[in-house]
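Troubleshooting: if your tokenizer reports a length mismatch, compare your output against this known-good record of 286 residues.
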Amino acid sequence: MEFLKCPHEKARGEVYPGSEIRRFPVPDDKVDWAVPWADYKAVNYTAPSVLRQPPWADPPYRDGGELAIPLKFNQLDDGVDRTSHIGLYNVMNGLPRNPCGRTGLKGRGLLGRWGPNHAADPIVTRWKREVGKTVTHSRSGKPILQFVAICRKDNKEWAIPGGMIDPGEKVSVTLRREFGEEALNSLELPEAKRQKVKVLIDSLFQAGEMVFKGYVDDPRNTDSAWIETVAMNFHDETGDSVGKLNLQAGDDAGAVKWMDIEEQQKLYASHTALLHQVAKMRNAHW
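Known-good structure output:
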């Protein structure tokens, strides 16, 4: 269940997502905070959408070096979970420090929280079938898994449907909610259909298996704000529940489909690594 990439790579991409801001270049040998680097000058950037302080965002940092409202890092803070899945993180000069090292950018970028921003990723799978029979790959001889993939509206990359955990919300609730909103467009369904979909999702999501829990190499990460996720696999063995649902993109998804799981996939953030773990768990083709 461990595939944490340190030094992270996507978190050091040249141009920050949704902007023209360029990160300060960080070579592999300078990622670790333990390596002295007097010339390190991370670019300061927090997206305007975050600075407007929506309900999901923390207060900004003042020029004087203090938070507008003191925050309690490494603990629960008035409903907001500021703990990390990978243990205690350092707080330097009042700000959390990315446990995977330098990213070339300080501030929060597109992330609402200083420190860990907790997400949940539901990986819904079924076996690929043709004429009622499971399809095996010609090279490996193993059965082919398919997962529900969405095309993100913001960057047009294919990804696992998922999203941020609301304060006080259980992970299990987030997983159900995000899958329903992004892959089934549940927010737009008539009430009767929405209830039927809810029953199917609740049935499938009772038997999830942990895939990964920890830091993910995400292009939105900064020196002081980063994504951590809980990824769960919900497998429809017979293809009779979610496998038969009418997928319909909604919320942050521009498109949705069943996609074969294979090594050549180029997916958003660390999603390819998550699917590799699922393929190993199910003894499926990779």
